[in-house]
Amino acid sequence: MQIKCGTDIIEISRIKQSIEELGEHFKNRIYTKQEIEFCESKKKQKFQHYAARFAAKEATFKAISQLLDNKFDISFNQIEVFNDSNGRPYIRINDFEFKEIKSIDISLSHCREYAIANVVVLM
Question: I want to staple 47 with a disulfide (CB 3.0 to 4.6 A). Which of 16, 21, 61, 101 is the partner?
């Protein structure tokens, strides 16, 4: 059994700028419909949530990178971040089934300027 991890940190202003300049094209390329609805529901803090989800996707790519090896072409919006009924985030990788992955755990955090994600994958 192996433990793989990935971490990513992003400036919230970069995500805000991308959304404001590229609009729906950027959002639809990176996020799923459910993620967009969730982030938009956060009103003034929506960019923090967009950034945290972006960081989560990057951290997930880093954690599962050894499984990709040019065999799979996964896009950002195929890695989806949800929250359970207690608000705890979790990851789902859409359209792919990695038999090697036993579980994925994620932690998200953000402040005024940065968002960070840590992903741990048990294989």
Answer: 16
- Distance (Å, rounded) from C-alpha 39 to C-alpha 86? 17
Tens digits of per-residue pLDDT, 22-69?
A: 999 999 999 999 999 999 999 999 999 999 999 999 999 999 887 776
Which residues, listed in sequence order, are joined to residue 73 by a DSSP beta bridge? none
DSSP labels, 22-84 = HHHHHHHHHS-HHHHHHHHTTGGGHHHHHHHHHHHHHHHHHHHHHHHTTT----GGGEEEEE-
CA dihedral 101, 105, 55, 44 (to 10 degrees): 140
Whether 119 and 10 have beta carbons less than 8 Å apart is answered as no
What does residue 77 show for φ and ψ, rounded to 5 degrees?
Answer: -80, 0
pTM, rounded to two decimals: 0.92
Name the 3-class secondary structure at 4: strand
